[in-house]
Design goal:
It is built from 1 helix and 5 strands; from the N terminus they run αβββββ. The protein has 140 residues and is α+β, with helices and mostly antiparallel strands.
Protein backbone atom coordinates (compact mmCIF):
# COMPACT_ATOMS: atom_id res chain seq x y z
CA UNK A 1 0.00 0.00 0.00
CA UNK A 2 2.91 2.38 0.76
CA UNK A 3 4.51 1.77 -2.64
CA UNK A 4 1.27 2.64 -4.37
CA UNK A 5 1.11 6.08 -2.73
CA UNK A 6 4.75 6.77 -3.52
CA UNK A 7 4.14 5.83 -7.14
CA UNK A 8 1.06 8.04 -7.30
CA UNK A 9 2.94 11.05 -5.91
CA UNK A 10 5.75 10.48 -8.44
CA UNK A 11 3.26 10.42 -11.29
CA UNK A 12 1.57 13.57 -9.96
CA UNK A 13 4.95 15.29 -9.66
CA UNK A 14 5.84 14.35 -13.25
CA UNK A 15 2.45 15.61 -14.41
CA UNK A 16 3.03 18.99 -12.72
CA UNK A 17 6.54 19.27 -14.24
CA UNK A 18 5.18 18.35 -17.68
CA UNK A 19 2.44 21.00 -17.40
CA UNK A 20 4.98 23.66 -16.41
CA UNK A 21 7.18 22.74 -19.36
CA UNK A 22 4.19 22.93 -21.70
CA UNK A 23 3.55 26.46 -20.47
CA UNK A 24 7.14 27.70 -20.29
CA UNK A 25 8.63 26.29 -23.53
CA UNK A 26 6.34 28.28 -25.89
CA UNK A 27 7.19 31.50 -24.03
CA UNK A 28 10.91 30.87 -24.40
CA UNK A 29 10.51 29.97 -28.06
CA UNK A 30 8.56 33.15 -28.70
CA UNK A 31 11.31 35.33 -27.21
CA UNK A 32 13.99 33.28 -28.96
CA UNK A 33 12.43 33.90 -32.39
CA UNK A 34 11.39 37.52 -31.76
CA UNK A 35 14.60 38.80 -30.12
CA UNK A 36 16.61 39.32 -33.35
CA UNK A 37 13.73 41.22 -34.95
CA UNK A 38 13.35 43.47 -31.91
CA UNK A 39 17.11 44.03 -31.90
CA UNK A 40 16.93 45.04 -35.57
CA UNK A 41 14.16 47.57 -34.91
CA UNK A 42 16.18 49.04 -32.04
CA UNK A 43 19.08 49.41 -34.47
CA UNK A 44 16.79 51.24 -36.94
CA UNK A 45 15.77 53.68 -34.19
CA UNK A 46 19.44 54.28 -33.36
CA UNK A 47 20.15 54.85 -37.08
CA UNK A 48 17.53 57.60 -37.09
CA UNK A 49 19.31 59.28 -34.21
CA UNK A 50 22.68 58.83 -35.96
CA UNK A 51 21.40 60.46 -39.17
CA UNK A 52 19.88 63.33 -37.17
CA UNK A 53 23.22 63.96 -35.44
CA UNK A 54 25.11 64.03 -38.75
CA UNK A 55 22.64 66.57 -40.14
CA UNK A 56 22.90 68.63 -36.93
CA UNK A 57 26.71 68.79 -36.96
CA UNK A 58 26.75 69.36 -40.71
CA UNK A 59 24.42 72.32 -40.22
CA UNK A 60 26.58 73.63 -37.35
CA UNK A 61 29.67 73.62 -39.57
CA UNK A 62 27.76 74.83 -42.64
CA UNK A 63 26.41 78.01 -41.06
CA UNK A 64 29.75 79.05 -39.55
CA UNK A 65 31.41 79.52 -42.91
CA UNK A 66 34.40 78.30 -44.86
CA UNK A 67 37.24 76.80 -42.86
CA UNK A 68 35.11 75.65 -39.93
CA UNK A 69 36.07 72.21 -38.73
CA UNK A 70 34.46 70.13 -35.97
CA UNK A 71 35.24 66.63 -34.75
CA UNK A 72 32.47 64.66 -33.03
CA UNK A 73 31.97 61.08 -31.94
CA UNK A 74 28.96 59.60 -33.69
CA UNK A 75 27.43 56.35 -32.44
CA UNK A 76 26.57 54.08 -35.35
CA UNK A 77 24.02 51.32 -34.66
CA UNK A 78 24.92 47.64 -34.50
CA UNK A 79 23.57 46.52 -37.89
CA UNK A 80 24.57 49.60 -39.90
CA UNK A 81 26.37 48.86 -43.17
CA UNK A 82 27.14 52.30 -44.51
CA UNK A 83 26.45 56.00 -44.32
CA UNK A 84 25.98 57.97 -47.52
CA UNK A 85 25.99 61.75 -47.81
CA UNK A 86 24.97 63.53 -50.97
CA UNK A 87 23.73 67.07 -51.35
CA UNK A 88 21.31 67.74 -48.52
CA UNK A 89 20.70 64.02 -47.83
CA UNK A 90 22.12 61.72 -45.17
CA UNK A 91 21.31 58.02 -45.56
CA UNK A 92 22.13 55.29 -43.05
CA UNK A 93 21.62 51.74 -44.31
CA UNK A 94 20.77 49.07 -41.73
CA UNK A 95 20.51 45.37 -42.62
CA UNK A 96 20.21 42.12 -40.67
CA UNK A 97 18.79 38.64 -41.36
CA UNK A 98 17.00 39.53 -44.59
CA UNK A 99 15.58 42.80 -43.24
CA UNK A 100 16.95 46.14 -44.41
CA UNK A 101 16.10 49.80 -44.04
CA UNK A 102 17.49 53.04 -45.37
CA UNK A 103 17.02 55.95 -43.00
CA UNK A 104 17.15 59.26 -44.86
CA UNK A 105 17.36 62.72 -43.34
CA UNK A 106 17.42 65.99 -45.24
CA UNK A 107 19.17 69.05 -43.90
CA UNK A 108 19.71 72.67 -44.90
CA UNK A 109 23.37 72.03 -45.72
CA UNK A 110 25.21 70.85 -48.82
CA UNK A 111 27.23 67.70 -48.07
CA UNK A 112 29.96 66.49 -50.39
CA UNK A 113 29.23 63.13 -51.99
CA UNK A 114 30.65 60.68 -49.46
CA UNK A 115 30.15 57.01 -48.64
CA UNK A 116 31.43 55.69 -45.33
CA UNK A 117 31.59 51.90 -45.01
CA UNK A 118 31.02 51.70 -41.31
CA UNK A 119 29.86 48.99 -38.89
CA UNK A 120 28.28 49.49 -35.50
CA UNK A 121 30.28 51.38 -32.89
CA UNK A 122 31.39 54.87 -31.92
CA UNK A 123 33.44 56.72 -34.55
CA UNK A 124 35.10 60.12 -34.49
CA UNK A 125 33.91 61.97 -37.59
CA UNK A 126 35.33 65.25 -38.87
CA UNK A 127 32.91 67.82 -40.31
CA UNK A 128 34.64 70.49 -42.38
CA UNK A 129 33.23 73.40 -44.36
CA UNK A 130 35.13 74.02 -47.60
CA UNK A 131 33.62 76.81 -49.72
CA UNK A 132 30.07 76.15 -48.48
CA UNK A 133 30.25 72.36 -48.90
CA UNK A 134 30.45 70.18 -45.78
CA UNK A 135 32.91 67.30 -46.01
CA UNK A 136 32.52 64.41 -43.57
CA UNK A 137 35.32 61.90 -43.00
CA UNK A 138 36.51 59.43 -40.40
CA UNK A 139 39.20 60.77 -38.16
CA UNK A 140 42.42 58.80 -38.03
Amino acid sequence: MGNCRRGQSSVEFLAVVAMLLLLIVPVFLYFYWEAPQRDYYASVAQAESCADEIVKYGELVGVQGTGTKVSRIIVVPKYAERIELNGSHVMVRVAYAGMSSEIVRIGPVNFSSTQLEIAGGAYPLVFENKNGVVYVSRQG
